[in-house]
Automatic annotation (TrEMBL):
Family, as annotated: Belongs to the class-II aminoacyl-tRNA synthetase family. Phe-tRNA synthetase alpha subunit type 1 subfamily.
Native organism: Tepidimicrobium xylanilyticum
Descriptive protein name: Phenylalanine--tRNA ligase alpha subunit
Gene3D superfamilies for this protein: Bira Bifunctional Protein, Domain 2
Necessary cofactors: Mg(2+)
A single BP term in Gene Ontology: phenylalanyl-tRNA aminoacylation
UniProt-listed CDD domains: PheRS_alpha_core
HAMAP family per the UniProt record, alphabetical: Phe_tRNA_synth_alpha1
Domain of life: Bacteria
Length: 333
């Protein structure tokens, strides 16, 4: 019986089969059970011997059954784990990641640079009054930039700002000196589109007003900024210029990006490449209009085209690419 039982147990293939084997040998009508039940028929001498033997065999079969059951459960578990396995190495990403627009990246870089120099970032409206865009900035009544052919007017008094300088007026009218702000945003001029011009473009304006602010502070600030933005070996050149709202005024060139000022074919041997910004000492009349005493305070301001800086930084040769939002272009950044 024992051998047959063990043989059966080894050959089983399911938990039901195992249960059937148990019933066959150990169940109420099982083979071993019937032997134990018939013990009464045996002689006094045979009874303990057969009884002990039968009990031992029963224990052995029970143990074998339990072991077989454990082994089988373990096997089922392994099979299930194998079936449920997920291959996390497969790259199933279907959504594409976005890209930061090079213009926005440049604006953030410039803003962070000025923040590190103690400036605060402020915003101004793209739709401005003629008063803030021209009058308060000391722009003469007959200045050509006021012409209908240069400026997008909405009404006689309201226009799309032609530069970010009206943010200076808004800042000086709302903040008491010391003032140290920058402001980036869209600006509009009635220009035809070509590789370097667009009727909508971007500027960043800076303004500092405090006691004892001098031209030296302006030059120093611009020089630090240029070296941080383009590299330590970049130089600047301040050329006298005219703006109605600053006096004295200057335009600033930076050294050629190819030769760093040595002179090469790219810069026609001059060593200078682009005109980077306009700047100057805030005109006393402008301070006055904003309620700031020009006897006590002085300031400097600067304004630069961000589109051109972006194009130089990223090697973009056509301004249209910045505004067309062609994915083939944007995906490169
Ligand atoms: N607003 C001037 C422009 O658009 C730039 C500028 C800003 C010049 C501040 C001087 C001071 O050209």
């Amino acid at each position: 019986i024992k051998e047959e039982a063990l043989k059966n147990i080894n050959g089983m293939n399911s938990l039901e089969e195992l249960e059937n084997i148990r019933i066959k040998f150990l169940g109420k009508k099982g083979e071993l059970t019937s032997i134990l039940r018939d013990m009464g028929k045996l002689s006094k001498d045979e009874r303990p011997v057969i009884g002990q033997l039968a009990n031992e065999i029963r224990q052995e079969i029970e143990k074998e059954l339990a072991d077989a059951k454990d082994r089988f459960k373990e096997k089922l578990k392994l099979e299930r784990i194998e079936k449920e396995k997920i291959d996390i190495s497969i790259n199933k990403r279907t959504r594409k990641l976005g890209h930061k627009h090079p213009l926005l990246a440049t604006i953030e870089e410039l803003e962070n640079l000025f923040i590190s120099m103690g400036f605060t970032v402020v915003e101004g409206p793209e739709i401005e009054t003629v008063e803030y865009n021209f009058d308060a900035l000391n722009s003469p009544e007959n200045h050509p930039s006021r012409d209908l052919t240069d400026t997008f007017y909405i009404t006689e008094d309201i226009l799309l700002r032609t530069h970010t300088s009206p943010v200076q007026i808004r800042a000086m009218k709302t903040i008491k000196p010391p003032i140290r702000i920058v402001s980036a945003g869209r600006t509009f001029r009635f220009d035809d589109v070509d590789d370097t011009h667009s009727p909508m473009f971007h500027q960043l304006e800076g303004l500092v007003v405090d006691e004892n602010i001098s031209m030296a502070n302006l030059i120093d600030t611009i020089n630090i900024f240029v070296k941080e933005l383009f590299g330590k070996d970049m130089k600047t050149r301040f050329r006298p210029h005219y703006f109605p709202f600053t006096e004295p005024s200057a335009e600033v060139d930076v050294s050629c990006f190819s030769c760093k000022g040595k002179g090469c074919p790219v810069c026609d041997g001059t060593g200078w490449s682009m005109e980077l910004l306009g700047c100057g000492m805030v005109h006393p009349k402008v301070l006055e209009v904003c309620g700031i005493d020009p006897e006590k305070y002085s300031g400097f301001a600067f304004g630069m085209g961000i589109d051109r800086i972006t194009m130089v930084k990223y090697g973009i040769n056509n301004i249209r690419l910045l505004f067309e939002n062609d994915n083939r272009f944007l995906e490169q950044f």
